[in-house]
Structures are given as C-alpha cells and as structure tokens.
C-alpha cells in the first residue's frame, strides 16, 4: 500500500510512534491483538496486574478477566528480547508474541514424554512426543503467530488427564505384590503402582487442572466433569476385587485430588484478584469452583468406596452431613448461574448468547461448520477419535486386568464427552482433541508395557498400526506436500494476508492524519479489534463477554432509527470514525440482535444498513476513500469521519475530497460548486475548485479560482498552500502547473529557500522541454546556497550545473553534499546518501538528471 512502517518510540505505550503496531497476526489469532494490547497496557500502567481497560466500550471502558499467566510470559520473553536488541520493551513484546506458544510446546515436549517414559515405557513416551508435535488439532494451538491462551489451557487439561492415567486412575498395587513385579506369564496383566506414587500423580493432576481452571474455566469445567464421569464408570465396572488380586481400587486418591484442586484453584484466584478485585464473576476461576472441586472429590471418594467395599456414602459418623455438604458445594455454582445470570454470568446474557449462536462459527454444529470446507478440514478435526478403535479393542481383551481397563476408561471418557459437545458446537473440538492425545501413550503403554502384542491377530496389528500411522502422518505429509508444491511457485499474497496489510495500512494512515488526537472507531467486531491494534485507537464493540455493554452500544448505533438518534449515540460514545468493511460489515446482524428480529430479517431502515445500501452520508460525516488491493476484489469499505459541528459547505467540501481521491474529478468539482452556492466567499472551496481546474483545464482557466481561494490569506499561508499543491502536481508529472504554483508561492514569500529550491529542481530536471530552463534554475540554486547549507540545496545546485553542461562543477557540488550529509543529524528533508551516490554516477557519466519524482 505504500504506507511507511511506524518508527520506534520508547515513550509510546506500544513502543512505536503514536501507539501504532505493525505485526500482522493471522485472522485465527485475532485474540492475540488483545493479549499484546493488554500486556503493553500493563507495562504502561506499572504494577503486575491489569483489571481494567479503556481501549474498548468507549467511553466507559470495561473490566478484564483474562488470566495473567500468559501476560507475564509475554513480558518475560519481551525483556529477554529487549535486552538483546535494545528495542523498547512494549515493541519487544509485540516482536516475540508470535513465538510465545511455540516455546511452551518445546517445554511440553521436553517434560511430559519423560514422565511417560518413567511409567509407561519408551514406546509410549515416543508416541506422546510425536503426537504433541505432529497432530494438527493440538499443534495448531502452538503454531507461530497463534498468540493465545488456548495452548496453555489445552496443555493443562491434557496434563490433568494424563497424570491421572499415569497415577493408575485409582488402582494401586496390593500390599503383597509390592515386593516383586508380576510375572508376564500370569493370566491377567495389571498396571502396578504403589499408593504413595499414585497420590503424587493425582496431586500433580490436580495442580495441572487448577492451572487449566485459572487460564480457562470454560475449558476446565467440562474436562473435570468428564474425568468424574470416567472415574465413576471405571470403578463401577472394574472396581470390585478379591484378596488375591494384584491391584485394588484406592478411593482416597480422589479426596486428595479434590483437596489439591481446591487449594490450587484458590491460590490462582488470589494470585489474580486479591485483595482489590474479589468479585462474583463466575465466567472465570472463582472460590466457588474450588468449593465445587473439593465437594466433587469427596463425592467421588464416597461413591467409589460404596462400589469397592459396600459402605454407603451416608453411613458412618457425620457421614450424612458431610456428603450432603459435598453435594451442596457442587450444586451451588450452577444454581447461581441459573438463578442470577445477569449478575454473575454474563455469558448467559440473551444478546450475547444469540450473538454467539447465530453468527460465530465456533458455535456452529460440526455439520454446519463443514459446509463449504474441504475434506482436509474435516479430517483435521475428526481424525483423533480414531484412537478410540484401539482403546475399545484393548478393553475387550481377556488378558487385560482391571487396572488397565480402568485407566483406559477414565482416559477416554473426557475426550468422548468433549467430542460430543464438539458435534454440537465446534468450539469444543480443540480441547476434545487435546484430551484424545493422552489415549495414544496410554494405549501404547498398555500394549507394550505388559508385553502381549502376540495376543492380537495379524489383521488387528495391521489395522491398529494403520490407525496410529494415519493419526500421526496426515498433518506432516500434507504440510510437506504443500511446501514441496510451493517451492517453484511464485509467491503471492492470499486474501487473508492482503486484508491484514490493507487494514494495517488504513489504520496507520488514519492515525498519522489525526496525530495524537484520541480516536474511537465503530466497526464490525473483528475489524474493530484490528483497527484498535494497528492504529493505537479505541473502539466500542469487541467480541468478548466482558464487553457486552460495548457490543450492545455498537448494535444500538447500527440499528438507530434516524440520523439524529445515531448522532446522539455516537456523541455519547465519543466515536470519531465509522469503518464498515465488506468482510465484517455486520450491519444486518447487529440490527437483528438489538431489535430481537428473526435470523432472516433484513431491517433496511436502520442507520448503518441504510447508509451502506443507499450510499448516503449525513452532513455530520465526512467520507474517506482508501482503495483496496487487487487481491481483495470483493472487498469494499464505507469509511466516515465524524464531524458533528461541520457546516453544509464543509460537508460538501469533504465529499469533494472523497471524489477527488477516487479520481472522479468531475463529481468533486460538482460538489465544490454546490459549496460555493451555499457560501460564495468560502476561500477553501474556491482554492479546491482552482486546483481541480488546474488539473483538468490548465493554468489559464484555474488562475481566477485559485486567486479567490488565496484572497485574504497571509504570505505564509499562501506559500504553504501553493508549495504543497505544487508537490502534488510535480509528483503527477504535471510540471508546468507545479512551476506556476511555486512561482506564486515565491510571490508571497520571495526569500523562502524551500520554494526556491523546489522551483530550481523542476526547472533543471523536468522532462518537459517547455518547462525546463537550466539557466534560470542555476541562478535560483546559486542564490539559494547562500542560505544555511543543506544537503538538498547542494544537490539541486549540482542538478542545475549538470543541466547547463557544467559537469565538473556538478560533481564537485554533489561531493560536497555527500560530505555534508555525513556530518549533519538525520533529517527527513535531506536526501539519502544512496540517492546522492546515484546522482554522482550520472554526472561522472556525463549525464544530467531528468526527473518526475518527489522533491
């Protein structure tokens, strides 16, 4: 697009000038924009936690309930990067963010397989390591550029389930078997672990689970429910044992699991909220989850004891009140969610619920989600459950003992539950597939750890091998195929990459035009985030439950019944810009949601839908044109700046500017002529009419309008206006018009060295022989270098000398310019030394410069 990158600025909250950012994240990682912005906001405010932001829901702001673990990780990596590169810390955070999750995957691969190696053997450890890195549905959480907390949540949930499996899922070695391992020739094969080691793994599982609850309660809660369901089913079918069995079920492990999970949940809650923000937000980790966890652990312990030993949960001293208290602890949280959702659980808000259900892809059923997608997309999300074939075959193996069957049942139930939820809403498939991953090393440990592969038929071995190979190899092979196919292909921007560049350049341009003035944008829920991120501006509606008020406010603006109503809402939220993109217009959707209309309704009377459909522009809006790239042929943009106090004349001038930037000069001239009718003495309108006439009809026709536009202005104002317009004409290779404007600027300020230098350059280098006047250029340039020397003035003198055939003098002048450029501080108005070297080579070759470029 040609928009320059922002330069580093240590004083800026983003590390770049005017709060801008330049890193383009993939569309799947839109949340990463907020993670980076929240992290930089924390660095700006100081302290170690951030609980409030004013970047959206303008002008009130909103609470933040994102866990700080990922934010602190970004800050730690940013400090390392900043210490090495010297970049401002906020800019370093942006630079390292794409790799933050990938590094976490490296740590995961280095740690979890080691645990598996110690308990399930080398084949199981290798299978886990391979699965962590080669199965797309898990690996995508950690791909470079995916700046999000879902990777930590998935890894924590995976670890929670896996450590329970390694801990025996409740089965421990009987006392008489602790001194010696069972022989391989026995009829059944058991998983042998003593109670102390099992307790350590259950505690580790609870710690991992509490971390998952801290990072994402929505991910952790169904995982815990699946684990509890798996525990009950496994103990029901396999919990009974005799005194001669090598293993027995040890229900007390679940009490340890519940107590540790409760303590871990409370610890992370206090870490996040103590002492000033301890409210009742049940969308995230809360002490009520800790209470439910310890209650759930107690219930599992007592029910398992009932199955194993026949002691009912309510039998024994104080048993009944304890059991009832445990049930109450579990039920209290969902009861509050159901009874008081408007106070404690905003996700249940009807507006937000309908928003998610109707318009967010993650909330679609698997069948709706796969419509229009390739078979490869379906394979990627549906591949992992194939491991259940291997697990179910193991469960019906006669030689397999209770402990292994219990472990396999426990490990597969959470994954099956989440997969079922994923069929209803695809957002659960990511965590479901993460929970299927522990089934691979568990199954491999079961098969090879007890050394009975010979118990399987040949066809079963082949089928099992094919299933595992298919799971492991699809993503690596398809990636290799795509890479190989693209080696010799010409690199091209795809629509996603092109849109990222497009919206970044637009945001940068708007920010530069507005300087450090506060900007607030109303746009679609996704594009609002992008413009906030790239342009360092604020927004109103972003797609997060904490910002329900901002979403509703945006919808009210979209759905306003009249222009005055829309203006009132826009003023209330201090909106400065409206940006409606074709790919994220959301005009009908917002209107339907806030008005409670049917899904197929088309409310064309609403403010934003009507403005899009009818191409209208109220008097208090100024249209802005920003062309989309060729890769986005279907993309359109309705961009408006809010100008509530502008007059009808100013509005017409703004529309004229819009048409002019679109290359529609006749339409622009028509709008300006209407502006003159409304206000005959408006000098701004006259000057713009003159500039258009100058472009379309030449100097003779434009002079009168230009002079009317300059009437009454100071010499400095006249010089600035004419010089700026002259540069536009010069860059458009309209040199005759540029000379006329520069001479008019010098009439106002005869001694202005910049206008003198610009005129000398045009006269010396123009390709238009009717304009080119080397002698006049030399006279101007020689007089100009009497002013304080600047590199540009010497370079212009050299160009004039070369144009007059004085090559030796030109070489000497440009060499002097090179020497001067090495001694002066960097200045955007000075030429780059490379350009001076190019000019020197021209003169040494006996050639003068013919130019149409900027000066």
Report on this structure.
Helices cover 62% and strands 4% of the residues. By secondary structure, the chain is mostly helical. Among the domains are: 17-99, no CATH class; 100-482, no CATH class. The strands form three sheets. Strands 6-5-7-9-8 form a five-stranded mixed sheet. α3 packs parallel to α6 and α6 packs antiparallel against α17 (402-424). It is elongated and about 115 Å long. The model is unreliable at 178-185 (pLDDT under 50).
Assembly context of the chains: single chain
Report the C-alpha radius of gyration, rounded. Answer: 35 Å
The strand order across the widest sheet is: 6-5-7-9-8
Beta-strand content estimate: under 5%
């Amino acid at each position: 697009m040609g928009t320059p990158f922002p330069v580093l600025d240590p004083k800026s909250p983003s590390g770049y000038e005017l709060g801008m950012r330049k890193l383009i994240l993939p569309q799947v990682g839109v949340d990463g924009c907020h993670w980076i912005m929240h992290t930089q906001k924390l660095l700006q405010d100081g302290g170690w936690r951030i609980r409030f932001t004013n970047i959206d829901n303008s002008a009130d702001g909103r609470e933040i309930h994102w866990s700080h673990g990922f934010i602190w990780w970004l800050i730690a990596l940013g400090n390392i990067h900043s210490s090495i590169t010297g970049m401002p810390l906020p800019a370093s955070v942006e630079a390292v963010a794409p790799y933050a999750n990938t590094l976490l995957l490296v740590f995961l691969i280095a740690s979890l397989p080691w645990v598996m190696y110690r308990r399930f053997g080398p084949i199981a450890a290798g299978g886990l390591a391979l699965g962590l890195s080669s199965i797309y549905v898990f690996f995508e959480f950690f791909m470079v550029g995916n700046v999000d907390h879902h990777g930590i949540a998935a890894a924590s949930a995976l670890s929670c389930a896996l450590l329970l499996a390694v801990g025996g899922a409740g089965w421990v070695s009987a006392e008489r078997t602790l001194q010696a391992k069972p022989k391989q020739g026995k009829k059944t094969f058991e998983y042998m672990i003593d109670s102390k080691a099992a307790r350590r793994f259950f505690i580790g599982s609870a710690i991992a689970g509490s971390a998952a609850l801290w990072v994402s309660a929505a991910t952790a809660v169904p995982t815990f429910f699946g684990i509890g369901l798996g525990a009950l089913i496994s103990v029901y079918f396999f919990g009974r044992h005799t005194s001669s069995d090598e293993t027995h079920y040890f229900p007390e492990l679940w009490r340890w699991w519940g107590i540790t999970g409760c303590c871990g949940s409370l610890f992370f809650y206090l870490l996040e909220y103590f002492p000033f923000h301890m409210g009742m937000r049940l969308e995230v980790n809360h002490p009520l989850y800790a209470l439910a966890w310890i209650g759930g652990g107690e219930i599992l312990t007592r029910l398992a004891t009932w199955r194993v030993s026949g002691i009912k949960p309510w039998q024994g001293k104080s048993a009944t009140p304890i059991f009832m208290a445990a049930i109450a602890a579990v039920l209290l949280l969902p009861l509050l969610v159901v009874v008081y959702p408007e106070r404690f659980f905003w996700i249940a808000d009807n507006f937000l619920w309908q928003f998610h259900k109707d318009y967010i892809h993650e909330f679609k059923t698997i069948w709706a989600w796969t419509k229009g997608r390739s078979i490869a997309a379906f394979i990627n999300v549906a591949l992992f459950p194939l491991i259940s074939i291997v697990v179910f075959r193991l469960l019906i193996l006669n030689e397999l003992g209770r402990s292994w069957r219990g472990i396999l049942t426990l490990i597969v139930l959470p994954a099956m539950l989440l997969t079922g939820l994923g069929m209803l809403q695809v957002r659960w498939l990511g965590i479901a597939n993460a929970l299927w991953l522990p089934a691979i090393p568990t199954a491999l440990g079961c098969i090879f750890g007890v050394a009975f592969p010979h118990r399987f038929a040949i066809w079963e071995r082949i089928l099992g091998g094919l299933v595992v190979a298919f799971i492991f190899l699809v993503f690596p092979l398809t990636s290799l195929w795509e890479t190989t196919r693209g080696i010799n292909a010409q690199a091209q921007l795809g629509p996603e990459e092109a849109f990222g560049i497009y919206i970044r350049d637009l945001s940068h341009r708007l920010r530069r035009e507005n300087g450090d003035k506060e900007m607030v944008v109303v746009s679609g829920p996704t594009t609002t985030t992008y413009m906030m991120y790239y342009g360092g501006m604020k927004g109103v509606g972003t797609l997060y439950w904490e910002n329900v008020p901002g979403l509703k406010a945006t919808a009210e603006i979209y759905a306003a019944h009249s222009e005055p109503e829309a203006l009132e809402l826009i003023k209330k939220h201090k909106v400065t810009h409206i940006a409606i993109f074709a790919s994220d217009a959301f005009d009908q959707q917002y209107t339907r949601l806030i008005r409670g209309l049917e899904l197929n309704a088309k409310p064309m009377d609403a403010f934003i839908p009507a403005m899009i459909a009818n191409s209208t522009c109220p008097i208090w809006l100024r249209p802005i044109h920003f062309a989309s790239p060729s890769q986005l042929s279907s993309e359109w943009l309705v961009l408006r700046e809010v100008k509530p106090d502008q007059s009808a004349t100013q509005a017409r001038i703004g529309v004229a500017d819009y048409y002019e930037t679109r290359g529609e000069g006749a339409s622009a001239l028509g709008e300006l002529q209407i502006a003159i009718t409304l206000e005959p003495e408006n000098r701004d309108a006259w000057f713009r009419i003159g500039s258009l006439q100058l472009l379309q009809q030449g100097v003779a026709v434009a002079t009168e309008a230009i002079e009317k536009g300059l009437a009454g202005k100071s010499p400095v104002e006249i010089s600035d206006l004419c010089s700026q317009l002259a540069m536009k004409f010069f860059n458009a290779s309209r040199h005759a018009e540029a000379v006329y404007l520069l001479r008019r600027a010098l009439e106002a300020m005869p001694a202005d060295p910049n206008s003198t230098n610009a005129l000398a350059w045009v006269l010396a280098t123009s390709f238009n022989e009717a304009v080119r006047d080397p002698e006049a250029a030399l006279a101007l340039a020689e007089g100009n270098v009497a002013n304080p020397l600047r590199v540009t003035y010497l370079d212009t003198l050299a160009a004039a000398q070369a144009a007059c055939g004085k090559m030796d003098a030109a070489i000497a002048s440009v060499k002097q310019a090179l020497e001067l450029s090495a001694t002066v501080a960097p200045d955007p108005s000075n030429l780059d030394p490379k350009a001076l070297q190019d000019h020197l080579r021209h003169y040494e070759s006996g050639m003068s410069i013919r130019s149409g470029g900027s000066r």
